[in-house]
Every structure is written in C-alpha cells, then in structure tokens.
Design brief:
Layout (H helix, E strand, L loop, with lengths): L14 E6 L2 E3 L1 E2 H4 L8 E6 L2 E3 L8 E2 L8 E6 L2 E3 L25 E2 L4 E4 L4 E3 L11 E2 L6 E2 L50 E2 L2 E2 L33 E2 L5 E5 L6 E2 L4
Parallel strand pairs: 1-4, 2-5, 3-6, 4-7, 5-8, 6-9, 7-10, 8-11, 9-16, 10-17, 11-18
Antiparallel strand pairs: 12-13, 14-15
C-alpha cells in the first residue's frame, strides 16, 4: 500500500503503482501504466521532477484511462509546466511579437485524488510582449523596441529578440533583447532603443510561476501583449479531490 492511499484503497484492490525519482519530461501516465483497456486504479508517487520544455505539452498527462478508473497522485517532488518565451521587440515594418504562453503542469483525463503535502505543482510563467517602435514621420530615423522577458520555469526560457532601428547614434537606435527566465525567476524585458533623445518601448517582463507576462510598452506603435500563464491543473471537465497541499505555496497557476 502506498503511503497516503490507506484511507482510499481497500484491502485486496489491485493498484498499478508507478514511482518516479528522477527528472522526466512530459510523463504520459496512461502509457507508463501499460495502456490498460479496462478500468484500473493507478497511483503515481513522484519524488523527482516531472517537467515540460514545450509549452504546448503538459508536464503530466493522465488522459486515456477507461471510464471508472481511479487516478491517485502522491507528489513529494515537483511538477512544472514549461515557461513561455519573450516576444520580439518592434522594428519599423513589423516584427513585433507577443509573449509566449506558459505551459500547464497537469492535464487530467479523469478525476484525480492528489496528495501534494510535500510537493509543488506549478504552471509555467508566460513571456513578456515586445516593445513598440519609435519613428519620425518620414521613418528615416527609427528606434527599435525592447524584447520581452522569458517566463519562469524549471527549464530556461528565451528572452525576445531586440527590435532594430536606423539613424542617430550607431547601435543606440536598436532595442535590447529581453532577458531569459529560469527556475529562480522570470526575465526582465529589454529597454527600447533611442534616436535623437526619443525612446522606443521597452519589452514586458516575463511572468512568475503560473502568471501572465506583461505587455510591452507602446511608443509610436503599440507594444505587444504578454502571454497567458500556464495552469497548475487543466481539469478538462474532471474533478480534483485534495488530500493536502493545495495552498498557494504548493500550487501556482489556475485550476480550471
């Protein structure tokens, strides 16, 4: 009997037990359980790190089990969604980019019972948007926007590329790239470029765990929006029963 399941799993019940004590990306629980075709009881005990480096894929996916299955997650490690990258700073003629969305920590395919008393379930932080461009009316002299900062995540996120300008002091007319994010925090947006004392928009800051990135600052052109923070849990119409560990220090990001 796994610790934490004693009140919920009756003696004699057959449980598919899956343990993880290492770093693993994009864990598909159904595949790890052997892709059973009949209803099962499956229990994941995680003392390692389950993460994603791709914001389009959840760190842990529980979809695929037959109706009537029971899923238990005992998390004493980390389950982390991917961070979003920062958007590119604006240049005259285009190129500005929105911040990338953060990835989700868990996507449910059936209702789950979770003990997270000693663990962390964090959605990825989103990237900041690129800053807007400054230009004179004839567009002969321009300043590029700053790149957005990368979001917070277990893996590193990229800051957005700088926007380019022309005229004025060499190189000063270009914006600065956004700063990358990582496990310890999100990256800041890069400053906008300058042409004859006029400043383009700075990039927006990346978001912390599970939060949105900031929009880039506007100049003559609008700054781009920040991305949307990753969810802690995507319910997909299912329910979660918490045994412990659903406070704000243990779960970051929406449960929706």
């Amino acid at each position: 009997m796994l610790i934490g399941l004693a009140p919920l799993v009756m003696a004699g019940d057959e449980v598919i037990r899956i343990s993880n004590a290492v770093d693993v990306a994009n864990l598909n629980l159904f595949a790890a359980a052997g892709s059973p075709t009949q209803p099962v009881i499956v229990a994941l005990e995680n003392t390692g790190v389950i993460y994603s480096a791709n914001a389009n894929l959840p760190a842990l996916n529980t979809a695929g089990f037959a109706a009537g299955s029971k899923v238990y997650i005992i998390n004493r490690g980390g389950i982390y969604g991917a961070p979003g990258n920062g958007g590119a700073g604006g240049s005259v003629g285009g190129g500005i980019g929105a911040g990338g969305n953060g990835g989700h920590a868990i996507a449910l395919g059936s209702s789950a019972i979770i003990d997270n008393a000693l663990g962390q379930i964090f959605g990825g932080g989103a990237g900041g948007g690129g800053g807007g461009t400054y230009y004179y009316s004839d567009k002969k002299y321009t300043a590029g926007g700053g790149g957005g900062g990368g979001g917070q995540g277990y893996v590193a996120s990229a800051g957005g590329a700088r926007g380019t300008g022309k005229g004025g002091t060499p190189d000063a007319c270009h914006g600065y790239a956004g700063y990358p994010g990582g496990y310890t925090g999100p990256g800041n947006g890069g400053p906008g470029g300058e042409v004859y004392g006029n400043i383009a928009g700075s990039g927006g800051n990346g978001g912390a765990w599970g939060t949105n990135g900031s929009a880039g600052a506007s100049s003559h052109t609008a700054g781009a929006p920040g991305g949307v923070g990753g969810r802690a849990i995507v319910l997909n119409g299912n329910a979660v029963t918490w045994l412990a560990g659903n406070g704000a220090d243990r779960v970051k990001g929406l449960i929706l």
